[in-house]
Amino acid sequence: MKRFFTPSGHKVTTLPSRAAFWGRHCFGWLVVAMLVLTAGIPQAMARDLVSGNYLSSSGRDIELRLVIASPAPTNLIVEQLVPPGNIIASTSPPARKIDRAQGNIKWLFRNTTSGAISLSFRLEEPLAGGVAAIVRYRSPLDGTFREMRITP
Amino acid sequence: MNEHPISGPMTMVKVDGAKIKYLRETQGLTQLYLATAVQVTTDTISRWENKKYPTIKKENGLKLAEALNVDLEELLLPEEADERGGASLDSPSATTLDSTPTSPPPVEPGNPSPARRKLLLLFAGLALAVAVPVGWLLLGGAGKPQLFAERELPRHCIAGQPFPVLIRVSGISDSQPMTLIIKENLPANATVVKISPESSGGATKKDTVKWLKKVSGPTTFAYLVTLAAGNNDSYTFSGTASVSGDVTLPETIGGNHSISLGTHHWADSDGDNTISDDEILAIHDRYRDLQGIDIDIETIEAIWLGSGYSWNAKTKKLTIRE
Fold first, then answer.
1. In chain A, which among 126-145 make CB contacts under 8 A with chain B?
2. What is the ipTM of this complex?
3. Domain B148-321 has what CATH class?
4. Which long-range contacts (CB under 8 A, 24 or more apart) does B39-46 make?
């Protein structure tokens, strides 16, 4: 909107042209609409699809519980780190690899579905030191490789 | 649909119907195969074959020639082929541009100034640039269905060791099956070990893999192939996809098209002589639905669980380190 005075001293107010109106307002609304529509996408893509916690992290039996959200990653690798010196007696479910010298247990879960998974291992002696687990998967949302660490 | 003997001399060509039929029958191809390749009906193919010298669109002639594995010239009448040589030099008469300088039109009082008009145009352009994709997304991409065909080819492989090639076709709805032709041209030193799904039509030669398949929903075509040691460092795969019906499909198959020969396993995508967690997850994600193609997952998993591998070119064996 513009205001100016004529030579005779009258105040004149002009309205913006229709095109200018649409140019200003419509574009603004479109930008707002775009922001609203796309606001949730990055958060949805970035959220962790797997969470987990230790049900037991001391003694001879150590148990880790994972919760897989939907959409579930198709395949999942869980690496359990045990301080060297602890002797691993058994794992459930059976691990793909047990590196007793390094204190490393690896599971590979294929064709996973959403829900909970329980992983446990038994030591010959009560655990000396702390444990941690690393979960790795590829996001079904964007195909990116994800890695997360779980500690008691 | 294609027999309008109008337009310019470059648009229409006269082909030999009997020759089309002869070439099709000697290669064991069906009329449906040709119809899908050219994107016309089987009735049209039948009409072309049974008419002595049908006039068809040059664009269709080229597709027809490609489907029959010949040059277009071979399908043309002799005089037509000769004329084509001369006609290709023809060009529409050039439009003379008026080079007289013109003064800018006077700005009418009350109208927006040129600068303002430019700004409005800019706004309108930006609004369109935003509104069109948003509208397209909201309406689910209205209009013709868009199909995509993409090749997944490893970056490298070892000579003589089989590796998988996938062609993923997406955009076909589950409720509307379509007949699809996929044609893959392989390097001369390639040998196909296995194809999946088995082709129900068309033909497969040493350097070509073809599928003619009625499909619904996203579909993966795959083959296992080996490359013999050659003089080149890298080799090229190329392919085309065509489909029947009112859909849009980019003719050339997208995705990776080049692979190099070396000493790294095809699943070791970064070529560091190990298979990492990321790589094994990618392999399982990518090939889990593959039917009938054995990618030797046992060896790949053994490399992943080990601490590395090396390729012995003399013994042609892979050694996996524990």
1. 136-138, 143, 145
2. 0.71
3. mainly beta
4. B39/B63, B39/B242, B39/B243, B39/B244, B40/B1, B40/B2, B41/B1, B44/B1, B44/B2, B45/B20
